Structures are given as C-alpha cells and as structure tokens.
Amino acid sequence: MDSFVGHENDLNLKATELRLGLPGTDESEKEMMCSFKNNKRASPESVEDSESVAGSDDKHGNRETPAAKTQVIGWPPVRSYRKNCLQPKKAEAETGIYVKVSMDGAPYLRKIDLKVYNCYPELLKALENMFKITIGEYSEREGYQGSEYAPTYEDKDGDWMLVGDVPWDMFMSSCKRLRIMKGSEARGLGCA
Amino acid sequence: MSGDDRCSGMSEDDGGSSSSYLTNRNGAGDSCSTFPDLVLENVLENVLCFLTSRRDRNAASLVCKSWYRAEALTRSEVFIGNCYAVSPRRVTHRFRGVSSVVIKGKPRFADFSLLPPDWGAHFTPWVTTMAESYRALEKLYLKRMCITDDDLTMLAFSFPCFKELVLVCCEGFGTSGLAVVARECRQLRVLDLIESEVSDDEVDWVSFFPENETCLESLIFDCVDFRINFEALVQLVARSPSLKKLRLNQYVSLGQLHNLMIRAPQLTHLGTGSFRLLENVAHSVQEPNYVSAFAACKSLVCLSGFRDIFAEYLPAIYPVCANLTSLNFSYANINAEQLKSVICHCPKLQIFWVLDSICDEGLQAVAATCKDLRELRVFPINAREDIEGPVSEVGLQAISDGCRKLQSILYFCQRMTNAAVIAMSKNCPDLVVFRLCIMGRHQPDHITGEAMDEGFGAIVKNCKKLTRLAVSGLLTDQAFSYIGQYGKLVRTLSVAFAGDSDLGLKYVLEGCPRLQKLEIRDSPFGDSALPSGLHHYFNMRFLWMSSCRVTRRGCQEIAQQLPRLVVEVFNWNEQEGRDMGDYIDTLYMYRSLEGPRADAPKFVHIL
C-alpha cells in the first residue's frame, strides 16, 4: 500500500483531528498515523546506528518496499538479539539438497534434506529414527559393524559408495540418492 | 514491626556522655549533638538488621530522623531503580555499609531500538564513587547500563571482597574487561552475562581465572556471540567444585557439552549451547553417551540453550525431565511432535519458555502435563505482522484450562479472541503478570471483529493480584477505563498502538494508584491527559511516551509544575525545525533528586 506517499501533504491535518468514531471504521487513517511515524523515524543514520544487525530486512523495509503492512521500528517487541538468533535459519532452509532414501525391505522411499545436517553422525541418527533401525558404528577399515544395516549412496559417477568414507562436504555435493542396505549384502561391504 | 510505640518513647534530647561513642561509630559528617536516646538506637539497629525488604526499610526510614539514621547504617543492599533518580554521591553518603548494589539504567523500550544510542546510563560515575566508599562491596547487579572495560577494571581492583557480578542487557565492554575481573576477583562466585552485548577484543578471558581451585558457583555467558577458549573452559570447570550454574553459548557443540557435563555432575542449571554437533566431526570416534551424561546430573532442575538444536538428540535429556522445574526452549526451532516427546516427561515444570513453532498443539500438550506451571513465555519464531501465526487463542485457552496455577504469561500471537482472554482471567486467578502481544497492530478479536477491550477488562477485573500488564490489539478508550477502574495493583503498564483519545491515558493516570512504570508508544494520547498524573508522577519511576500526540508545550507545562521531575524530550530528526506545537517523538520523564543530568547527549532536551 503506497498510500502513505500520496498523503504526506495532508498528514498533519489528519493526525491532529479529533475523532469520536469507533476505531477500525477508518482503517486508512490508522495506517497513515503509523506510516507518518515511519516517515519521521526512517532517518537512516539514527535507525541503522541503533540496530546491531546488518541486512535485517524487517526493520528497513519501510522505505524501499511498500508492503501490505509496512514494518515498524521495534515492533513486534522482540529484542534484536533474539530476532538475530532465529532469522538466519529461515534463509538457509530455502535452498535444500533433497535426496531420496530407500531401505531394503521398506515399502516406500523417503526424502531428506541433506542441508539440515552438519555431519555424518547427525545424518545417521536421523536415518535411524526415520526407519526405526540401528545402523551400527563406522570405521574406515571395517565399515559398519554391529548391525545388519549399512548406509550407502549413489554418487555423481553412478557408483555406489559407503556413507562416511569421504569428507562431509564432498559427500553433500556428490550424493544423488541414499540406500540403506540390509543383510548379507551389507556385511559384504565391510570385508577388506 | 510496629514503629508507633517506639516513636513515642523517643526524644530528641541527647545524653552528653554518649556523644563520643557516637562519633566513633558514625564517622565524620554526623553531628553528635542532635542524637537522641543512644541505647534505643542501638537496639533499633540490631532489630533493623532483620529487615531485608527494601520497601519495609524505606517505610522504617520515614518514621523519624533516628530511625532514618539507624536504617541507613544497617542497610546492606541498595536498589537504584533509575540511575538518574539519585546521584552516586548521595547514595554513598546516606548508606555507609553497603555490600550489594542493584542499578538499572535505560528504560525498557531501549531494547526495541526506541532509544537512540549514546543516550546515557553510564556506569562510570557509579563505580568511581563506590570505589571510594564501598570497599566491602560484594555484589553488583546492573541492568541496561553502559559499562566500559575501564569500569570493569576499576571494579576488579577496588573491591577486594567482590563475589557476584550480574550484567543484564548491558553493553559497552568486552573480553578485556572480563579478563581483569576473572583475574583480580579471587573470591568471585558469580559471573553472569545475560542478554548483554560483549565485544570480542580477542582476549582469552576464560584463561584468566585463578589457576587453583575457584569459588565459582555460577558462570553464565550464553549471550556471548563468539567462540571462547574451550580447553580453558574445561579446565576451569574441572577446578570449580562449587559450580552449580553453567550456561554456554551457541559455539559450544554437543560433543563439547558432553565433555563438560561429565566433569560437573553437580550442576543444577545448565545452558546447553548449540545442542548439535560441529561440522565434519569424524564419526570413527564413538559417539559419546549423551543420555548417561544427563542421567549423571541428578540435581539438574533448569535447562536452557538448544541454540541450534538437532532435535534427534532431544531424547538425551529425558533422564532429567522428571525433576525439571525450568525449561527454556525459546531458541529451539522444534515442532509440536518433538516438543510432545519431551514435555510428557516434565510434570514438575514451573517455568517454560518456548517458540511458537510448537503451535497450538504443542501448547495443548504443555497444558496436559504441566499442572504446576507458573510462568509461560511463547516467543515468535517469525516476528512479523503480516503472516499466519502458528499459535492463537486455541493455545491460550488450552493453557488456561490446564495450568490453573499460572502466575506469569508472555504470549506472542497473530490473532486472539476476547473469549480466550476472558477464560484465562477466570481460570488463572493467580496471574501477576499478563503480557499479550498480538503482533498485528490494531487487530480486533478475529472471530467477533470487536476490539479486545473486554478481554483485557476481564484480566484486570478478575486477576486481583495483577501487577504487570502489557496490552495489544485493537483497543478503545474503554479498555483503559477498565484498567483505571480495576487495575488497582498495577505497577507496570505497556501500551502500544492502542486507545482513541486522551481519555484513555487519563483513565489510567487517575485510576491506578500503584502505577510506577508507564510505557506507551504510537498511541493517540495528547497534552490534555498529562495533567491527570500531576498528583502521581513523583510516585512513579518513569513515564515513557513515544510517537504519541504530546507536544513540547504540553511537556513544558508539566515540567514547570513539577520542578523535581526530569522531563526529557527528544526527536529523531534534529534537522527539521521544531516549534512548541509540534508533536515530539519521545517523552521520558522521571523523578530525581538531582535535577537535569549533566551527561545528556545533544539530542536530549531537558525541559
């Protein structure tokens, strides 16, 4: 709503007018009052100095983007520290690396977002919970010991690899799909 | 303790032979010749030692001069609610034997960027004066103050018995200052940094603690926004056998947390840091047994942290849930299912902070289990106005039905109904703090379309113990009429985007005799309402009004009528020409014994 730009000249008159009507009957006036304050307050120097965040979009949006409801300084009243802690997560979640996960014997596949995990233990824990299994312990020499499951993945070259052999970042960029092997096939992988 | 009988027995006559005794005890500055019955005063001091509440002490000090002096001599804890209400020198002159000081600086709306930086609340004059007069100082609690590294250094070197430092919402200092405190305060028991801004001077402050066993009981640094030396921390924890409270920051991984927990099973309060693993952790090393680490902490009653939580690890905390009285999930992005798996194990929970990502469903689960809940805070994961919110009146209703002992609530939501608020007012009669933040400005009851007047009206009417109230949503003057009529115990009131006219403010100023802190923003209250508080402003800690309809002229009139009130006025845009009839951006006024402060920045005008 860019009405506040057009009303700039009228602003003082409307703002000082005494009203007896019920609130809500004149929505545009309420918007104007808020945007009146926005215009006054949106002095970049004073605003930016008092913010400790660079690039937070919800506070500086009032000038550039006339959204349906322009954001106001300090509203909602959540401390910027708290806002900063939570916002970065949202941005990350937008671009995920989704791969299919199949498990031998399971009737249907699942899909997971690899970006959610920081490292192998987290991925494995998630797989264990998702399929209600125990995957066992990984070692470079023996592969996965202690259970009948072994997590494998298909890489960019079309080869099936054991999960955990390469560094995590490399795994993330080369993994196309996951398959949790079961039984003798899985055990066979461990033999050197 | 009734003072009346004592007062009648006292006389202002002095016993000549006793004057030298008095001189020795009271030191320079007191005139012996006006002292009354010495024995009675001695007795009085011994009795007054048992008075701990500052309100009781304030009352006692008003009885007569003798009581005033005796009380001043025996007061060991001083509370300064507004650092500009009184000067450091006046405090140290009146109270001589102080061991604990609390000072609060900036008004609360500073937290929401409504106060320009460099406004004030400097700790320097306080520490400088106390360094001379309070050599026995042990405890310092500061809130919303600007503290420099030099201040911390002076503190560290001036108080040989110093034991506890708690800094809440403070800023201006960094690791260098902390390092000096760690090194010099050999008796330090408590170092709590809570929601403060600490700058990274790249000094490894954790390494500065004494090398032998420390007295540390509480170390809280979850607000520190950069890595600390983890190895040094492990060794510190290992040599701090009295450590009970430890709150780590988000740079501490789950593996590191485990490392600390096994060395400190005696912990009662734990802030868990990130609660996930570091990136690229080689998993050829067996994953530690997190569950047994938690199980070993048999005294754990308070859990927080979970800054970057990997929810799959939540089951690790199950062993401690049964005894948990306080759980802070307010940085944990978890859904209803994940919350349910934990909360069902926490029947003793009294304090619960959480994100609205748990949705109404999560709140229903809380209501079903946590029958002893006293304090609930629901924060928004997405603090915007124009979105669909995950929690609503459904969650609030559920909580009110299930948690009848609720005393304090802070609830952020996008939509609400009067019905739910009224229900809470009836179901939870013990409510002392009710803060409802409907994030959409001027949002009415989303089912009836009415203003939220009746809901808040019911709160002030039915919750007879209510002392703190924050209102939101579409509110007419009627809401304020209710507050003025029923809110007789209300001490703190926060108003934003509410009301129709000056009447609203008048109702409050005239009706609420206990009002101490009134903070208002973006509401159409103007000059004609201000005089309604003339009889009361000096009983208040402060009045804050920003983006309202008060003019410089209106404020000037108040300033003239009440010379002991400091009336600060500031505008964000100094460049524009301002005259007396223009609205001011911000009015901040407070009582003070000192008159206009000398350290006001240029943009602050004191009328």
From TrEMBL, chain A:
Give the protein's biological function. Aux/IAA proteins are short-lived transcriptional factors that function as repressors of early auxin response genes at low auxin concentrations.
Name the record gives this protein: Auxin-responsive protein
Region Disordered, as annotated, extends over: 15-68
Q: Name one GO biological process term.
A: auxin-activated signaling pathway
Give the family this protein belongs to, as stated in its UniProt record. Belongs to the Aux/IAA family.
Subcellular localization is given as:
Nucleus
Domain PB1, chain residue ranges per copy: 96-183
Q: Which GO terms describe its cellular component?
A: nucleus
Task: Please verify whether the record's keywords include Transcription regulation.
Answer: yes
* The protein's assembly and partners: Homodimers and heterodimers.
Q: Does the keyword Calcium apply?
A: no
Q: What keywords would UniProt list here? A: Auxin signaling pathway, Nucleus, Repressor, Transcription, Transcription regulation
Q: Which organism is it from?
A: Ilex paraguariensis
From TrEMBL, chain B:
Q: Which pathway is it part of?
A: Protein modification; protein ubiquitination
> What InterPro entries does UniProt report for this protein, alphabetically?
COI1_F-box (IPR041567), F-box-like_dom_sf (IPR036047), LRR_dom_sf (IPR032675), Transp_inhibit (IPR041101)
All copies of domain COI1 F-box, residue ranges = 39-76
Tell me yes or no: is ATP-binding among this UniProt entry's keywords: no
Which residue ranges does the record assign to the Transport inhibitor response domain? 97-142
Compartments, record wording: Nucleus
Q: Where is this region: Disordered?
A: 1-20
The protein's UniProt keywords, in alphabetical order, are: Auxin signaling pathway, Nucleus, Ubl conjugation pathway
List this protein's GO terms for biological process: auxin-activated signaling pathway
| Highest taxon above the source species | Eukaryota
Looking up SUPFAM superfamilies in the UniProt record yields: F-box domain, RNI-like
Q: Name one GO cellular component term.
A: nucleus
Q: What is this protein called?
A: Transport inhibitor response 1-like protein
